[in-house]
Write a structure and sequence with these properties.
The protein is α/β, with parallel strands linked by helices. It is built from 14 helices and 12 strands. A 6-stranded mixed sheet has the order 2-4-1-5-6-7, sandwiched between helices. A 3-stranded mixed sheet has the order 3-9-8, with helices on both faces. The protein has a 3-stranded antiparallel sheet with strand order 11-10-12. Helix 7 links the parallel strand 6 and strand 7 (232-236). The two termini are 28 Å apart.
């Protein structure tokens, strides 16, 4: 699973990406399309539960969960018609599972805004419209082929035709596809299209250092819009976060305190991106390592075991599960077991966020 960072040129996407991935590369130049090919990086998901577990289970190392981020070049008005290498850039968005849209919410005469004025709602509308137009184009191109196949009696093609028509009717109302609920079979029939407005979205308000909590009118406008469409907003000062990311731990903590931050805003952003992707973590804990493993919300115990190794899923017998609350109460796995709090779960068990597990399987 991966998320793509998108936005207009010069909104701070690459600065944010470099900070998130702790990239030490030079800052992007202040002109459009300085990012051409998408950059990819792995972002750890800060999780205080790892250290909480470590208090009771001494270990050699702790390994957080992570997600893949893709820094996609700035999208401009007309991208769906090929403006600014738009077709190429849009194809990169089709390949991600969720969208993090960076929206400029700061004034700076030294950083040119591609539209000439800072207006985050206009920026959101521009990107959304280009993605909708591109989706319409994709669907209209796919419809004739699906209709031909449907006439020959292909059941899958018939489903695809219905799904395409539902999507086109919805887009005709200027509504993104993430607001449309399709039957599971219909959604599956068009899954390969990579429809961009069907992807979950998170708005990242890039703020000035004087508005780190995002209380200013520009961010509030984005919040009001996001509330209407069921999306979240995370305020981040990409410039400050990139400076913090470059520091060693001691200096980083000092800078956070001076800025009045309990943790880097990037930690909040990474966790929220994880949630938007529909992901959660479970833990394994032992003397060698305590590790967070990533599974989709709704994954079963065998599927979770398969994340560690495919053999674990194929030969799954059962899972032994307890919670961090159990560990904090009883302090050791031995006492958790002695008090009957170590649950034995079978193949149908649906994993819960924060489960601490042992898996038993046949070789």
């Amino acid at each position: 699973m991966k998320a793509g960072i998108v936005g207009l040129p010069n909104v701070g996407k690459s600065t944010l990406f470099n900070a998130l991935t702790s990239s030490k590369s030079a800052q992007a130049a202040n002109y459009p399309f300085c990012t051409i090919e998408p950059n990819e990086g792995i972002v750890p998901i800060p999780d205080p539960r790892l250290e909480a577990i470590r208090k009771y289970i001494p270990t050699q190392r702790s390994i957080p969960a992570s997600l893949k981020l893709v820094d996609i070049a700035g999208i401009v008005k007309g991208a769906s018609e090929g403006q600014g290498l738009g077709n190429k850039f849009l194809s990169h968005i089709r390949e991600v599972d969720a969208i993090l849209q960076v929206v400029r919410c700061f004034e700076d005469p030294d950083v040119v805004h591609v539209s000439g004025a800072v207006n985050p709602l206009d920026d959101i509308e521009t990107i959304e419209m280009e993605l909708m137009l591109a989706d319409i184009q994709t669907l209209e191109n796919a419809l004739p082929k699906a209709e031909r196949s449907a006439k020959s009696g292909d059941k899958e093609a018939k489903l695809r035709v219905e799904a395409i028509k539902h999507c086109l009717a919805h887009l005709a109302k200027d509504e993104p596809l993430r607001k449309l609920t399709l039957e599971e079979s219909e959604a599956k029939s068009i899954d390969s299209f990579g429809l961009m407005t069907a992807k979950p979205i998170l708005y990242v308000a890039n703020v000035d250092e004087s508005d780190l909590e995002g209380k200013g009118p520009l961010v509030q406008a984005v919040r009001d819009f996001a509330k209407k469409v069921g999306a979240a907003v995370i305020p981040v000062c990409a410039k400050l976060e990139s400076e913090i990311a470059e520091l060693d731990e001691a200096d980083r903590q000092e800078m956070l305190e001076s800025a009045g931050l309990a943790e880097p805003a990037l930690a909040v952003l990474a966790r929220e991106a994880y949630r938007v992707l529909g992901l959660q973590s479970y833990f394994t804990a032992g003397e060698k390592e305590i590790r967070a493993w990533t599974v989709p919300v709704g994954a079963t115990a065998p599927q979770a075991a398969g994340v560690i190794h495919t053999d674990f899923e194929a030969g799954f017998i059962r899972a032994e599960v307890y919670s961090l609350a159990d560990l904090e109460q009883y302090r050791t796995e031995k006492d958790i077991r002695a008090h009957g709090k170590l649950r034995v779960e079978g193949k149908t068990y649906v994993m819960q966020d924060g489960d601490i597990c042992h898996f038993l399987f046949n070789n």
